[in-house]
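Same chain as my last thread, 240 residues:
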Amino acid sequence: MTRDIVVLGHHKIGPIPPDGWKSWYYVPEAAFAAQLRLLKDRGYTFLTLAAFLDGLDNPATFPSKGVLITFDDAYRSLLRHALPVMGAAGVPGVVFAPTAWVGKKNDFDHGVEPPEDIATWDDLAAMERGGLAVQSHGRTHRGLSDLTFAEIEEEIAASKREIEARLSRPVAFFSFPFGDNRKDDEAGRAHIEAALRRHGYRAACVYGGDPVRLDLSHPYRLTRIAMGEDTDLAKALDSR
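reply #2:
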């Protein structure tokens, strides 16, 4: 059976904050709800984190068409603007949190993105209860190409420990900050993937342009469709 597995990569759902400015990464709630309806209408099954990870090990367990909804950065606004939409539609997902920024503002974007609150640990626990599995986005949200291998090891290992200690849930999925997995440095990328495997991660994701074909043979370099305000999801799905 041919299987069509899609991973969507969101950042922000809802309105621009009063002290912010327009950014491609803000997807209006109505547009987000329309994306979920489109996926349902096209016969996609929404995957939990557990089902997705199990499918990577045993693709026969995947449905013929499956989709995983993910969010990078763990913005607090997801609680108000994303979780209710997903809950009403019965849709699970994954949120990747940079643990050193929990409860702070996103200064890691260096002024490129509007300042916005990152979820607190209590917020992340609420997201878990609402069906968003909290996984790792590293500790400090630095691109791995800028770090030594010792620093990369710390980003990978410490973030996992912190989430597991705070939320009492296993962490097995990593999202590379800025999508930076040293893709132009094969030796470096191999080192990173070995570290992820050694610390108990089963998968990691980057981004990819449209059309995106998820390569299940490389679980530590899974591609996602980047979702912004003008992403034509129907076109992206048709071009796969």
